[in-house]
Specification:
The protein has four helices and six strands; from the N terminus they run H-H-H-E-E-H-E-E-E-E. By secondary structure, it is of the alpha+beta class.
């Protein structure tokens, strides 16, 4: 069964809403630079990756095998914590002045995961980043998240995030923001 077929089997509406609200809250924390609070929503076994899309030499987009891709990052919880600690020092020159971001998610589809209590989420994703007066960047793509129930105030925990950008190349001078 393909991931697309699996996502066609919808979870109950109340559960869908609950998970979607968690993802909106998580995006809000990132936009408000509440990185430690965001990290509290991330499981210690997180797989946090981002890759670009390759311009294939074929018009057949149905191919099941995609050409090699460019991995932008492949972070663990510890690496995320180090990135956040660096931003907190005030010495992260790429963030002087701090970026203003807006994380936008849409077309959220949720399915039960392989492990009970875990759910796979596919969504469309846009991150708008503005810094200084004229430095604006858009990151657009698809995000594949996995969330699980947790004993936290939010009730959920992010245990996987894969961002697949539509861009084949990145035009930003740095990637200091969190996706």
């Amino acid at each position: 069964m393909t991931d697309t077929t699996k996502l066609l089997r919808a979870v109950p509406l109340e559960l869908h809403h609950e998970i979607e609200q968690f993802l909106c809250y998580e995006a809000e924390l990132l936009d408000d630079w509440q990185f430690r609070d965001w990290l509290d929503l991330v499981s210690k076994d997180i797989a946090y990756t981002m890759r670009t899309t390759v311009n294939a030499q074929t018009r057949d987009r149905r191919r099941s095998v995609q050409p090699p891709t460019t991995w932008v990052f492949d972070d663990s919880w510890h690496q995320l914590e180090r990135r956040i600690a660096r931003l907190e020092t005030g010495m992260a020159w790429a963030e002087e002045p701090p970026s203003r971001t807006r994380h936008v998610i849409s077309n959220v589809r949720i399915a039960e995961g392989e492990v009970p209590g875990e759910f796979d989420v596919r969504l469309n994703y846009l991150l708008y980043r503005s810094q200084k007066e004229r430095d604006e960047t858009l990151y657009v793509g698809t995000r594949f998240d996995r969330v699980r129930r947790a004993d936290s105030a939010a009730g959920w925990q992010l245990c996987r995030r894969e961002v697949v950008l539509d861009q084949a190349t990145l035009n930003s001078h740095n990637l200091s923001v969190l996706f």
